[in-house]
Design brief:
This protein has 1 helix and 10 strands. With 102 residues, the protein is mostly beta strands. It has one domain: Elongation Factor Tu (Ef-tu), domain 3, CATH 2.40.30.10. A hairpin with a 4-residue loop joins strand 4 and strand 5. The longest helix is centred in the first third of the chain and has 4 residues.
Amino acid sequence: MPKKSIKSLRKPVKKTKPIKKIKPIGKVTHYFGGIGVVIVKFNKIVKVGETVKFKGANTDFEEVIETMQYNHKDIKSAKKNQEVGIKVAEKAREGDEVYSAE
């Protein structure tokens, strides 16, 4: 019986599309548990009504931004590198990353 070469035993490799690396759009800098508010420093413009995902070692949830505040005043959008307060339903932790869920 003839020996089969290693090449003939390999399955053909299918070419796939490259996986997009999802970059975070912000980071949680503080969490106020008593009032359920996170302070997030965004690295791009984010508007009220957008859905964001909070991800960390013990955190993994999505939230629609209902309200956003800067210096205790309501704002409609956060500018790049601006730290804003966002009301959330679940606990987030300092250092958690924020991703766009849309």
